[in-house]
Amino acid sequence: xxxxxxxxxxxxxxxxxxxxxxxLADRSTVTHDHLVGVAEVGRDETGALVARASAxxxxxLPAALDRIGAPTVGVAVTLTLPLLELARLADAGAVLLGRxxxxxxxxxxxxxxxxxxxxxxxxxxxxxxxxxxxxxxxLAVRAVWDRVDPRETCRNAIDQACTxxxxxxxxxxxxxxxxxRAAAPPRPVRWDPPPMTFTFALDAGGGTSSGGGPxxxxxxxxxxxxxxxxxxxxxxxxxxxxxxIGSHRIGVRGLVTGLVVVIGVVxxxxxxxx
Length: 274
What we know:
With 274 residues, the chain is of the alpha+beta class.
């Protein structure tokens, strides 16, 4: 599956779990642009409770940062402010978060971040990389600012504020948000999307090549300047655009049809004359 495709997630609770039911009830009533939502809730053939959610198309935060490179202060503000706003909501009890890791923060091609937290009481993966949702958001904020040029004057203060926010929450989260807002105005995230699985090379032999295959063969040097190259180019242009007659272009199919009709009329006339 390509990283930019829509990913359907299914969480399953084989045993009755109050924590999972509570998370489902809370998430089903919450709509947040930067938080994964629940699409459907039901039971499987064994009677276990199942929730389905659609994660937005995007890359995990570390992979996205590798592609973006060292973000400017403004880009770091754009990436981290939504995470802090969500962390403050969770810290205040307005949103119930499950466990998550830094990899569970996704970044789409427009630079929007979304947390895909893991509901409690399910059979989903567990491990040392998963921490409570609020802590995971602060770690994600720290991961972004760790990529910012350390010579920036705001770096040391934000690094310390991240440490305080992860440990204390509450007022420390608000202080971190204020420091980030004061660092710079938000700037759009500009980066190249991941390469397509198939690259279409229309002008390089008319073929296609897959992302893992050899590159398409290009024309030999000087071929476009030769008579044969010009003839081939004229043929391709005729197939694409048709023949210009007066102020109108007639497609190849129309030309062939007209030619067949003319030949038929001529042959029929010659037979009638004979």
